[in-house]
Amino acid sequence: MRERLEAVVGDHSIYAARRQKYNTGAKIPFRTSRNPLELSPSQTREVGTIGKDIANYFLAVDVLYRTDERVRAMLDTGKPEIFLTDDSRPSRYLFVRPDIIITPQGFTICEVETSPFGLALSEVLNRGYRQEGFETLVGDNVLAEHVQAQTSVKGNIVYSTKTKSYAGQMTFLADELFSGEGRNWQAHHTSEMIGQPGKDMYRGFYLAESLTDPDVATVLDSQMANGGVLLPSPTPHMEEKANLALIWDKRFEEYFKRELGQGAFDHLREVIPPTWVVGYEEFFAPGMPHGLSTSVDLATLSRARRAFVVKPSGFGTNTSWAEGVKLLHEQSAANASAILQGAAQDASGLHVIQEFRRGVKVSMTYEGENGQDIPMQARIRLTPYYSVAPGDEGRLVAIKVTGCEHTDFIHASSSSINTAVTGPNGR
Q1: pTM over cut 0.85
Q2: Backbone φ, ψ for residue 192 (5° rounding)
């Protein structure tokens, strides 16, 4: 399978390690499996149900932000004036991507992303396994057709110094998905786009980078000032981890029940762990755990009782790729107290706290150097990409899986298995 995936990648690069010590020198810098992950019938149905519900929730959050001053005041925390959205500039995204952990309770959504990092890898994996005869959950050309239906015939995919590790994935997207007959998209570093306004732009960088990277700031200012199309749109309120807390905010329960329906509301409460925004504890619908009154008080609990995750919410330099994420049950009481106090005192952005749900171990195998199958008891993260296009909300357009052992941080790395996803009897 490694050779097959290398052929699909072609002259592109999957990932260039940001630190030399993690550089494997391999074209496929992760473990490969001969088989995709096979989901059960109920799990396959759940992937579809989550897609419809999370896409509609994502769109409902955008409407809520634009119509409720309480949400707007909260989600605008720490953001420069240039990004404070008005009603005349609607949000535009190609997809919404929840990170789904397989837990004893079933599927658990720990985050929702809109950035393209990993999208190309999903397509590489899907193509490779389909070429080997597997019937994956996403058919041939589904992602390319979706992307091309939502974008113009010409444009640029732009990455930054921070995200240049994914430059090869950006060129793959431009060449293999965004381009086609009568279409021409190219991938460029932000420095190459200075003084080049006009073409539509797909953003392979984070909005918060404009605070620290002059090239990013210049490109964003130019694109927005000249009215050029920018995808994902410069609407950082839609990229906040705090959005998942809104389903658990008692102030908005009736709104979401009305917009989504009672069934979808209840379903999202099942798959999104209890989550609240630090400083807004009074609105957390279930009430603070163990009778506590503030988030800082979680540090007084024993490790077993403080199974919670603290995360910076969105607009900042340490909010991507699990940077800044802290598992409180892995910390000493003193460290947990410092983390929580820091979150409570940080006025530059929001922080969220989420109930931790540990993934179950799933039997997987990966290909060893000598071609043998090596077993792994892996914790699993599914990353499905769902359309948010009008009339096509919730359709699955890409999906991949990552399996890790010996860690609760499930992420793509040289020691993880990355593979495609199939339903029952997927060959």
Answers
A1: yes
A2: -80, -10
